[in-house]
Model the fold of this input.
Amino acid sequence: MATEQKHRLFLIDDEPIQNEMLKDYLSERFVYDISSFETGEEAFKNMHLKPEVIVLDYHLSAKDHNAKNGVEVLKELREKYPEVKVIMLSGQDKIDVAVDSMKYGAYDYVVKGETAFSRMENIINNASELHKLKSINAIYKRAILFLSIAMAVIILVSILLVSFAH
Done:
């Protein structure tokens, strides 16, 4: 019996209240299995769960000064898990922070504030749709390959049958 793969989302923010509020908000709107972490190091220990989307705080080392900051975590995520969509979340409304985040591979950048949760919802919808389209595309590619091989075999058998008939 095949089991359906769970869709996972990670929240990485060293503010537990922020994590909990965002988790509650997203849980009401999505069927993701959501896990929260206060450091990138904690999240990396759980990457075997294969999250599709990660919401990552820009300033992660506020509490634990030995923890990697958001950009360091983002760089490592891009290097080791390039398929995961990482949404950078920050309290800073500075263009250079957003540009850095995008330069290092963030899928999008959201400034914490009144509209952050609804903006996050829209971005996750887009990321989910992109993930679904990529999955469908992969299935179509396999089907085309199978059909191409089948047609090649039919053509070869036809050629052999015609040549043996003469």
